[in-house]
Design brief:
Blueprint lengths: L2 H10 L5 E2 L23 H25 L3 E8 L5 H11 L5 E5 L5 H4 L5 H4 L8 E5 L8 H4 L1 H5 L12 H18 L2 E9 L2 H13 L9 H7 L2 H15 L6 E5 L3 H17 L10 H16 L1
Helix pairs in contact: 1-12, 2-3, 2-12, 3-12
Bound molecules: adenosine-5'-triphosphate and magnesium ion.
The site of adenosine-5'-triphosphate (ATP) has 15 residues, from helix 6.
Length: 300
């Protein structure tokens, strides 16, 4: 398949899951088991398409790096076992590690808690020409922190600044932060991998049945599951308030891993292709230099 065809598919496939104006977004409209126009019989073809997508991504990343103007920030959020790690592994499998960096954000350290909530993420933003992948992000500040108010308490924000509007204020801060990044050449794409509660249970049980997967299981994951509805409400509200044309959310069905990976890869190819990247033009003087260097090498 030609690159132009891959780019065209990459544009249409993820469209139904892209939210660029969150105001009317409803999470119950997205079925975690959705596989678009594909079904289980298409799995092999989907895997092949994923390979092609990843190859296209590698070529586009090379252009991103060479042109050294834009950077790409990919944010991943999801409930446990939704497949974040697998998606990131696949995306990474095709790109040049020199131009890509993954950062995982866990519960904040004492030093991190002593700063504003964006601080630790700002330190890991991708440089121009690079791709930055956030495995969890500042969005935890309106998800886990919202579901567990005691975490907000630990942030030691002056009490007079913590009122009923705290979440609305955080959404506003996040929107302006992302606008600021966009205006400076960082392209932002955000992915919420939306797994169903039943599928999560199945995946936890699979982990428990396989000793080599035990390390991935934590008892607290099962405890967190009890707050499913509160989390879904927080996710929905997050998308409603932070999905913008410049920094859209892709709410990706995540019960079928092959489909999730395909949609994410396509959205990334689409984002990179939309930049219309070109290799830097080499001027006459530079061309002469290159020719002279070649002649010198040949003469040695
Ligand atoms: P895995 O999917 O392999 O379990 P993980 O991303 O869940 O990986 P964990 O070691 O479980 O990794 O740690 C992540 C935990 O840190 C999550 O429970 C998340 O909610 C929590 N966390 C992340 N950011 C924050 C934050 N800003 N405040 C409080 N907790 C946070
Ligand atoms: Mg975990």
């Amino acid at each position: 398949m030609k690159l132009s065809q891959i780019v065209k598919h990459a544009h249409t496939l993820p469209r139904p899951f892209c939210v660029s104006d969150g105001r009317r977004f409803r999470l119950d409209r997205i079925d975690p088991g959705d596989t678009g126009t594909l079904d289980a019989d298409d799995k092999a073809r989907a895997k092949e398409a994923l390979e092609r997508g990843i190859e296209a991504m590698a070529g586009l990343q090379d252009l991103l790096y060479a042109s050294d103007r834009w950077s790409l920030l990919l944010v991943f959020q999801a409930m446990d076992a939704a497949g974040k790690d697998g998606v990131i592994k696949h995306v990474m499998s095709g790109v040049n590690p020199q131009g890509c960096q993954v950062t995982s954000f866990k519960a904040p350290s004492a030093e991190e808690l002593d700063h504003d909530f964006l601080w630790r993420c700002v330190r890991h933003l991708p440089e121009r020409g690079r791709i930055g992948i956030f495995n969890r992000s500042y969005y935890e500040e309106v998800l886990v922190v919202r579901v567990h108010p005691e975490l907000l308490e630990r942030q030691r924000i002056p009490p007079s600044l913590v009122g009923k509007r705290i979440w609305a204020e955080r959404f506003e801060n996040i929107r302006s932060f992302e606008r600021h990044l966009t205006r400076n050449g960082t392209v932002i794409r955000k992915f919420f991998l939306h797994v169903s509660r039943d599928e999560q249970k199945q995946r936890f049980l699979d982990r428990l049945d396989r000793p080599e997967k035990h390390w991935k299981f934590s008892v607290s994951d099962v405890v967190e599951r009890r707050r499913w509805d509160a989390y879904m409400k927080a996710y929905e509200d997050m998308v409603r308030h932070t999905a913008t044309p410049d920094a859209p959310w892709y709410v990706v069905p995540a019960d079928h891993k092959w489909f999730t990976r395909l949609v994410v890869a396509a959205a990334i190819v689409d984002a990179l292709a939309s930049l219309d990247l070109k290799y830097p033009k080499v001027g006459r003087a530079r061309r002469k230099e290159v020719e002279a260097a070649k002649a010198a090498l040949l003469a040695q």
